[in-house]
Amino acid sequence: MRNSIPAEVQKIANKLHEAGFQSYLVGGCLRDLVMHRQPKDWDVATDAVPEVVNKLFIDFAGGTKEDPDTVYENDFGTVGIKTRSEDTTLKIIEVTTFRIEGKYSDARHPDEVKFAKSIEEDLSRRDFTVNAMALDLAPSGPAELVDPFGGLTDMETRLLRAVGKPIERFREDALRMLRAVRFAADLDFQIDPETFTALRDEAGLLEMISKERIRDELQKMIMTPQAGRGIVMLEDTGLLKFILPELREGIGCGQNKHHTYTVFDHNVHALSYAAEKNYSLAVRLSALLHDVGKPRTKQGDGPDCSFHGHEVVGARMAVKILDRLRFPKEIIERVGHLIRYHMFYYNVGEVSEAGVRRFLRRIGLEYLDDLLKVREADRIGSNVPKAFPYKLRHLLFMIDKVKRDPIHPKMLALDGNELMELLSLKPTRKVGDILFILLEEVLDEPVRNTKEWLSEKAKELNLLSEAELNKLSEKAKETKDEAEEEVESDIKAKYHIK
């Protein structure tokens, strides 16, 4: 195992030993190393106090007083050591002094942290047995594994078990309950029965945890290959209702004859597909929440039930959910948009090039790739054989054919400033109305997108009265919605909506 330890880590260990201190590889990196997984970061535990570590490594990789190689800005005895490595997982290696933690009054933070004298004491404060092992990094002799809680055996039997009494570990830090599910999903482990019981009994403690910490753990779980299993485990342990209660509304909610699964199971299967394909966070969240609005829009029951408008309701719900969990604004907006338009309808021969241009304007070309990925996840989540059927490939062909055509006023050959100068107009609604009407003309006939044609047409429109211009503008808006109305009609027929 020593041969798998990066040179940067061993160099830090050697320096500690030269100064008379111990060093051990600990935590998730050791767990991953034993399981032949690539560690995401590297952690070393030592009996040297932070001030000594800080002094020892201040110039570890060529640093200076102005640009030191150490970062020590916490109350937990952890010093970050810059290695200047090209490998992102090794750029900063955390070295933490052996410690034990006092009582937790708020199920979030220890009331006090004390430095310990042995690695065994340090391991006793950790969450799960597979994370409570240590590998001696002494440069001479065999690399001995310190495993006081049977983590290696649990790893071999693929069991996630809390260190000591599970109920005490979860009352110390309730976020450990979410970590239990994440680890079990990511490592494909089963949860030890006693640990599982404690999860269910103490699930309510999660309400004491900040939304930001919950979001971070949820995001890590969503980004694992076993994300769908993770969601099911959150439900099985009683944790889901404290994180995504809206998602639970789909449990037992049957669908029509076009679906095999309940709404909840369908959403989980869609997420599983997105995770399997290693899609982005926004796509995975969209896959998980794309039908969250169905239970609230369900009409009727049995094979002919309907969910008219669920994509609109679902988009609003998803935005509120992600905002509550403090996700970044750009993720919230993207997921909301993808869910709002995931029901787009396209059939070969039914939509014209102008319709495709209107479709692109409606959804935004920058969302197209992710929208198609959500559609794939939706289809596989419905237990259909093909994620990307011929008609979607044909849609891509049509998009490629028309995507250079103007689909937004900014793509017109005559812009707003030129229009105002041409017609001696001030920035008013009239300018916007004229541009909107011009765009509708061009959507139907892209060859009209020349400055000459648009200028002449704009002069004609400028001669109209305000009432006439408003009427044309409203008609243009109706034309804009024409393709969408046809789509809605087709969807209604497809899903037997009256």
What does this structure look like?
The relative contact order is 0.06. Helix content is 50%, strand content 7%. With 498 residues, it is an alpha+beta fold. It has helices at 7-18, 28-34, 50-56, 119-124, 151-156, 166-172, 175-187, 193-202, 211-222, 227-236, 245-248, 263-276, 281-289, 294-297, 310-324, 329-340, 353-363, 368-381, 390-402, 416-423, 429-444, 451-462, 466-494; strands spanning 23-26, 43-46, 70-71, 78-82, 92-97, 99-101, 113-115, 134-136, 145-146, 159-160, 190-191.
Summarize the structure.
The chain is of the alpha+beta class. It is 50% helix and 7% strand.
What's the number of structural domains?
Answer: 4
The share of residues in helices is 40-55%
Write down how many β-strands occur, each being a DSSP E stretch of 2 or more residues. Answer: 11
CATH class of the largest domain: Alpha Beta
**Mean pLDDT across all residues, rounded?**
86
Strand content: 5-15%
Structural class: alpha+beta
- Bulk shape: elongated
CATH architecture grouping of the largest domain: 2-Layer Sandwich
| CATH superfamily descriptor of the largest domain | Beta Polymerase, domain 2
Could you describe the largest sheet, including whether it forms a barrel?
A: 7 strands, mixed
Can you tell me the CATH topology of the largest domain? Beta Polymerase, domain 2
Radius of gyration, in angstroms, nearest whole number: 29 Å
**Between the first and last Cα atoms, what is the distance in angstroms?**
66 Å
Order of strands in the sheet with most strands = 3-4-5-2-1-8-9
* Number of discrete helical segments: 23
Parts with pLDDT < 50 across at least 5 consecutive residues: 483-498
